[in-house]
Specification:
Nuclear Transport Factor 2, Chain: A, Rossmann fold, six-stranded parallel sheet, 14 helices, elongated, alpha/beta, single chain, 3 domains, Leucine-rich Repeat Variant
């Protein structure tokens, strides 16, 4: 719809001049740069005008007046565009206008070449987001997590239809955008702003500000670039507490700046424990929901109610290794109660992980011995590491035993062993439990069945 409106504007402008003058119009390109602003403060609307050149080299255009119009707010098109102001392009082809939004939200602004110019260009669109202070911000590093686009593809002019998107990204980002202000980061250079935004529209990626790599203003190192950018964003927007990416460097930049990091990866074991791994976008969405729950539980653990503290610690202790990444950012907060609660949970999860790693699963007999040790250890998360299904292990009852007697051992089929045990408690009568162990494809043995 916006592209059609833009074409109409250009057509009207052409009709207003003579055929001779129209023939002399020089083709140009307008690029608008998105803005993430702080509510109550003016933002800078920045647009660049370039004359279309050869081999992708477009000379900057100086001395042209550009008009700015507000055309949309929070996804709703205005009945008529609102004029915001004018600026003239400088030697770099850049025009800038200060504007102060009067309410939180997302605003779409168009910049247009003024009628009568010797240049013709479609209007440039830039998105301005001014989230409320209590609205969470999620940073999303697009490269590899959302798009397969590269600077080389952009430079060569590869058709957007041929540039792949990461499966599930658009749908899950659409869901997250209902609850959070999204901010996109990319290593794509600013020169490809228009083309890449068109790719995003084609792939139904929800609208949010996109921060491109400014080639001549930032380090060529992705790691340094991410650290500097996330540091700046965190300083200006403390509600940016969650980051998503596809590289370890992305996760490290988020963690280093006090954020929870989720990284899309097929090799979760290679990431530090402070980074949350995800295999696909559905898992990313599940992690985001769990991060919200963990925040509530940590605050209960840090609170004054002993009953709530105990219940919260029990739930947090069941998170497993991934929980270390959930709670890590809280350890550096100024609230000593919350920071100490996070340290307690992080330390306990690491201890549980170490205990679970020490358990022997190499044979049926060894796994049975490990199971009895986990019962005596008394932590559901440690017990769950021995089960084929972790949730079944978490829910499995932990018997109170001081001694175990082997009643029978049967092997009904290859790769399956059934133990019948007599469990002797400190008080009361012994009970009998059947434990079924099966051999997995990786040759380790696991407990099978909720009754075990």
């Amino acid at each position: 719809m916006r592209a059609c409106a833009a074409v109409s504007i250009v057509a009207v402008a052409l009709a207003a001049v003579s055929p001779t003058a129209a023939a002399e119009l020089k083709a140009a390109n307008l690029s608008g740069y998105d803005v993430l602003g702080r509510l109550g403060r003016a933002v800078t609307l920045k647009v660049k005008l370039e004359r279309k050149g050869l081999l992708g080299i477009n000379p900057d255009v100086e001395g042209e007046s550009l008009d700015y119009y507000l055309v949309e707010q929070d996804g709703s098109e205005l009945a008529s565009p609102t004029f915001l102001g004018t600026d003239e392009t400088n030697a770099s082809g850049v025009a800038e206008l200060e504007w102060k939004p009067d309410a939180p939200g997302q605003y779409l602004v168009e910049a247009r070449v003024r009628r009568g110019s010797s240049y013709t260009a479609l209007p440039a669109q830039l998105l301005v987001a001014t989230p409320a202070a209590d609205r969470g911000i999620v940073l999303v590093q697009l490269d590899g997590a959302v798009t397969k686009a590269t600077n080389l593809q952009m430079f060569r002019g590869t058709e957007n239809e041929k540039i792949a998107a990461v499966e599930g990204a658009a749908e899950m980002l659409g869901m997250l955008s209902r609850y959070y202000q999204l901010v996109y980061l990319t290593d794509l250079e600013q020169a490809f702003t228009g083309k890449f935004k068109e790719w995003m529209r084609l792939r139904d990626i929800p609208r949010a500000p996109v921060i491109f790599w400014e080639l001549f203003e930032r380090s060529l190192s992705h790691k340094t670039y991410m650290n500097q950018l996330v540091l700046r964003l965190r300083k200006d927007f403390p509600q940016a507490t969650l980051g998503i990416g596809s590289a370890q460097e992305d996760g490290e930049a988020y963690v280093a700046n006090g954020m929870t990091a989720i990284v899309l990866t097929k090799k979760p074991g290679e990431l530090p424990a402070t980074i949350v791994p995800a295999s696909d976008w559905r898992e990313i969405a599940a992690h985001v929901a769990r991060v919200h729950q963990v925040n509530k539980l940590l605050r209960e653990l840090a609170g004054p109610d002993p009953a709530q503290q105990q219940a919260a610690l029990a739930q947090l202790s069941r998170l497993g290794r991934v929980g270390i990444g959930y709670v890590h950012r809280y350890r550096s907060l100024g609230d000593p109660n919350l920071a100490s609660a996070a340290s307690l949970v992080g330390g306990k999860l690491r201890a549980l992980e170490a205990f679970a790693d020490s358990l022997d699963r190499s044979s049926a007999n060894a796994t049975l011995t490990s199971l009895i040790a986990a019962w005596r250890f008394g932590e559901p998360a440690a017990l769950a590491s021995l089960y084929r299904d972790r949730e079944t292990g978490i829910a499995a009852p932990i018997p109170d035993v001081i001694s175990v007697e082997l009643v029978t051992r049967n092997e009904p089929e290859p790769g399956k062993v059934v133990f019948k045990l007599r469990l002797i408690p400190a008080e009361g009568e012994p009970t009998v439990r059947e434990v079924v162990l099966v051999r997995e494809d990786d040759k380790t043995w696991r407990v099978d069945g909720s009754g075990s």
